[in-house]
Amino acid sequence: MAQALLNAGFGNFVAADRLIAIVSPDSAPIRRTVSEARERGQLVDVTCGRRTKAVLIADSGHVILSALQPETIAGRILNSRGDLSGA
Q1: Coil, strand, or helix at residue 40?
Q2: How far is Cα 45 from Cα 43, in angstroms, rounded to an integer?
Q3: Could you give the angle at the alpha carbon of 61 between the alpha carbons of 58 and 64, nearest 5°?
Q4: Which of 4, 19, 32, 46 is least enclosed by beta carbons within 10 angstroms?
Q5: Is there a contact between 62 and 38 (Cβ–Cβ < 8 Å)?
Q6: What's the pLDDT band for 83 if we cut at 50, 70, 90?
Q7: What are the two backbone dihedrals, phi and then psi, of residue 72, each rounded to the nearest 5 degrees?
Q8: pLDDT > 70: what percent of the chain?
């Protein structure tokens, strides 16, 4: 089976099948999750110096920071699956 890759922005790709959540970075629990991932060495920053707008959480415990909106990333996942209904 081919691995589905998701464009997380600026030429960076993430294994779409490994993602369990795409969330906004604004809440305290998500900020704490990002901080804990940084301490564990499981934080991947693909923002290229831009403001973090989405946090992707993988099933491996890795936390990925992206400069794209969560809606944009979710839309890319749906488009890659061929599901354009959004539901």
Answers
A1: helix
A2: 6
A3: 55
A4: 32
A5: no
A6: low
A7: -65, -45
A8: 93
Secondary-structure breakdown of the chain: helix, strand, coil percentages, each rounded to the nearest 5:
30, 30, 40
Return the number of other C-beta atoms located less than 10 Å from residue 33's C-beta.
Answer: 19
What is the pTM for the complete model shown? 0.89
In 1-87, beta strands by DSSP E: 5-9, 12-15, 19-23, 43-45, 54-58, 63-66
| Phi, psi (degrees; rounded to nearest 5) at 75 | -60, -40
Residue 10: CB atoms within 10 Å: 13
The residue written with tokens 């946090």 in the block is: 55
Q: List the domain boundaries for the chain.
A: 5-81
Both tokens assigned to 42? 């499981």
Q: Which tokens belong to 50?
A: 């831009």
Q: Are strands 43-45 and 5-9 parallel, antiparallel or unpaired?
A: unpaired
